[in-house]
Amino acid sequence: MPRERSRDLASLRPDILAASDSRHARRAVIIASITQLVVVLDGAVLLIALPLLAQDLGVGVASLPWVANAYALTMAGTLLLGGRIADLFGAVACLRLGLALFAVASLGAGLAPTFEILILFRLFQGLAAALLSPASLALITNSTSVGVDRERAIATWAVTATIGGTLGALLGGAVTQLIDWRWTLLINVFLAPALILMTKGITLGRAVEGGRPKRRHYDFPGAALLLVFVGFIMLSVTLSVDGRIRGWAVVVAVAALAAFVAVERRSAYPILPLSVMRSPRVTLTNGAAFLLMAGLAASGFYTSLYAQLVSGLSPIVTALALLPSAVASAVVAKLVPRLICRFGERALRASAPLLAAFASLLLAVAAFFQLPFAALIPLLILQSIGASIAVVTLTSASTRSLPARSAGLAGGLITTAGQVGSSIGLAVLVGLAALVAGSGSDSHETGSIAVQMAVALAAGAVSTVTAGLLAQQIPPGNDTEPRMVALP
After folding, report:
1. Cα–Cα distance between 30 and 55 in angstroms, integer?
2. Rounded Cα distance, 194 and 214, in Å
3. How many helices (H) and strands (E) does the chain have?
4. Model's pTM, two decimal places?
């Protein structure tokens, strides 16, 4: 009887259900966006704190990159497992599990007495982040309908990725200066439980087409082999920055990839169905994301060095100088749905990387002639606009590359492509720049830094242009492409 009454009320007042669905969708987008902000922010929050961290834990400068690499390595290597868990276990449950693990790992990292223990817990933070990122995108995909609503939601989610690095630098600098570098990590111990409480009452706003598999098989062997492959690929690139290829690391990576393919072929529930990779939309979308992030990876790294070592700015002033580009990126990302309706998604995702590449070339010229940092700010804004539009449109395209029941896999793939592309791109571009500019004793002097930045950004522009060419070839996906209609 109560069930019949609820059906009658639903038929009499559809506006009530529509308002409820709208509130649910907004709440899901807020939770997913804040979660993604935490994931991106923690990848950059320790950058400004590195000198004090090294002094406190007694480590050399050469070991400091592992503070970021440990986080990026495990996150990139296990994102597909995180996407699989989101698809089988549910996006909300996956978020809660990831947030709980993230809080524990952040507590361990913040209280770490030695550098080795810090790196260990940073590895665990990366594992937790691999659960959070695809689950947050899956929550959006399963809580919004195809069209303008989803485009807006994805734009909001993507904004956090574009401003997270800058916000992380600002937060890290302020907390380090006012309190202690450890609190850049310990703040998550309070933030994660608050996000878990926010998920109370959140359910999928719409049915997942095709349902979920009844058997929860997570393919841990495949996930482990993928982690080994990604890890040794990144390790081989990192160790080869002097121009000498480390054959042993490449051999291990190739062997892990071969074993991964063999396991996935035989698995009844593969973490990455090989048939998926035969889809032109999947390969082109993720290939474009890989090349885009690889081409842009060196920009933030060298911009920070240029501001401090060439222009003489302090870390806090450097972070503040990067705010205009972060604000421009956030504003443009929110406008992408309107731009899609006016120009079409295909045109945007093809032209936006070209705009970012053009800005990168101008930045390379400015760095070569050692212009004041104020002259670089408009170019950084232009680059951020192109990058922001490209990230949002490619993320949107990825959500239509697979059916809704595989939203976690789609989110895991696009995030893995971007994360691995950024890590490998940074290592390759920095290594190339060091070889061209010379890696002798003067490698950190003003002139060398400027030349390295010019070389890295010019080479990165080539990768970014290629990303635009690939993005232009992406065919329509499972759901209808956004139509060119007027928005309210």
Report:
1. 38
2. 31
3. 17, 0
4. 0.70
